[in-house]
Amino acid sequence: MYAVVDCNSFYCSCERVFRPDLNNKPVVVLSNNDGCIISRSDEAKVYGIEMTGPYFKAKPLIEKYDVATFSSNYNLYGDLSWRVMETLRMIIGEHNVEVYSVDEAFINMSCVPPNQLYEAALQMRETVEQWTGVAVSIGVAPTKVLSKVANHIAKKDKQKTKCITVLDTRKKIDKALQLTPVKEIWGVGSQFAKKLNSFAIYDAYQFSRMPEEWARKNFGGVVGLRLVKELKGEHAIIMDEPLTEKKMIATTRMFGSPVTALDDIKEAVATYTSRAAEKLRRQSSAASVVNVFVVPKEDREPGEHFRHGPTISDSIVLPNATSVTSELIKPAVYLAEKIYKIANKDDKKSLFKKAGVMLSGIVPDDKLQANLFVPASQNNGRMLMRMLDNINFSMRDDIVKFAASGTRRNWKMRQEFRSPRYTSRWNELREVE
Does domain 249-405 have CATH number 3.30.1490.100? Predict the structure, then answer.
């Protein structure tokens, strides 16, 4: 048996942990630069506030119903996510937990007796909520896909289900599948749902009754086959091994406001490169390929929605893989200048809305191949980077940074409603009077 532990309106739940006065009150969290709504509490949904809807459109409803509004606080969310996952590992064992996303994890429940599944899920939910303050819903079933179906039912009517649904019999599974539209099946996107509807398949039960060969032929080969098998209760998607090393590391952000100056682009790219290099060192790796991209802002007619222009990117292969920030910033800034000239050819002054840096060609940093024609500076560089990382980790807010990252940072992300970083900044700890 598998379980899915899914945090309820995760970002909103994180904000409520240190603001108990917001319990049972409407809360929304905004995306980068406070553009769109990316998390809503159940109370906010009741007032018709749409998910992913623009903030400016929802503002009248937010003000009318006194909805608490927050900018994204990723330091807080990341820390509380780690606490939730660590709690699950302590309850059920590290090797039985597969972290699927920042607010969701699969649990291998094979160690729990079949007649104790509900009690185990209830204890798990209560422990996570008591230890972290984050509310969760749990779905338990014979396969991963069915556990997602169970979790969807658990969250649909929290009062009735107490945020727990266990599908441990064929009768319960069939009933749950009949109540689940195909668009709600894990792995079925909107296009697949439309295609299924064209075959007069509207719910998960109908889909599960289709022949496996038909699913293979019409729905992405082995992907469709696995989906049908899982809906039938047959194991087809196993628990993944914990991912310890990333094959590509990226840092990308929307600018707080569109920028035109080359210096602003170079500062942003240098800053993003520094952050990507930190991630690289954190997994004891080095990169040999640097890719930089920018996204121009397209012209639009009055009243027309904002549009991104075509992404402009370029990459460079380094002579040696490295994790030293200065050795990554130099080619990244060179690429930024090159891209800027391409975007502004014919004396055009482009507006840029976004930029990013991606590092690839990743190898372990203790297995770097030396170059006879280049001085061996890697060891000294790594020692310097270790000291830099230790200082920035202990003091926070990139207190030591490279000059190329700049000090003005006109492009910095807008966060007008950000709450304090209660768990990761000494000067932002919650005060109790």
Answer: yes
